[in-house]
Amino acid sequence: MTIRVVVADDQEIARTGLTMILNAQPDIEVVGEAADGRQAIALAQRLRPDVCLFDIRMPGVDGIEATRTLAGPAVADPLAVVVITTFDLDDYVYAALRAGARGFLLKDSGRAMLVEAVHAAAKGDALIAPSITARLLGAFATTGPASPPVQPIDVLTDREEQILVAVAGGRTNAEISDEFHITLSTVKTHIASLMTKLGARNRVEIAMWAYETNRVRNAFRHR
Length: 223
What we know:
- InterPro entries: CheY-like_superfamily (IPR011006), NreC/VraR/RcsB-like_REC (IPR058245), Sig_transdc_resp-reg_C-effctor (IPR016032), Sig_transdc_resp-reg_receiver (IPR001789), Tscrpt_reg_LuxR_C (IPR000792), WalR-like (IPR039420).
- This is DNA-binding NarL/FixJ family response regulator.
- Keywords: DNA-binding, Phosphoprotein, Transcription, Transcription regulation.
- Helix content is about 55%, strand content about 15%.
- It has helices spanning about 10-25, 35-45, 65-70, 90-100, 110-120, 130-145, 160-170, 175-180, 185-200, 205-210, 215-220; strands at about 5-10, 30-35, 50-55, 80-85, 105, 125-130.
- Strand 3, helix 3 (about 65-70) and strand 4 form a beta-alpha-beta unit.
- The longest helix is centred in the last third of the chain and has 15 residues, at about 185-200.
- Residues about 220-223 have low confidence and may be disordered.
């Protein structure tokens, strides 16, 4: 299947470069381009792409607001959004993930990671630049969440706790399957159960909950 992508960036040269990289892949097609957030929202709502690739800083409606409109908590049928930016700022990272983004990349991450992030988002996975993931962990370790994390509707099983940490560490379903010697189907079942128990809609929200409840910090501390 071909992954259909909408790209939004106010800089034409950047937009063209992203489009060329993605269109060079045999299973990815850029079906629309936008120069600002308002255009991006309209285009995405009309085309319903598999993945939206949004720059953060755009005139009018920025990438974070566009992400919230298309993938935020209030959206019944959210689209997969990957946010990409030249600005490596914590405020942007938090805002993008809270707005519903399934990935966060820097523009200098390289074409391989860009393509990987699009593939991950299309599959319902999440990819965040490794340097940003490490800093998120450090931030939560020192400051903790801004408000008390939600409590699961049912107690997590030991296996769910293990997979929770693996998801928060950025592992894919295939990697989790190999690590715990379980089938992909079983991995998906556990992740679906985690989403239900935590009220999460995607892997990023699962990961954020793991950070907020110190699951990741504690797991790394005991390794």
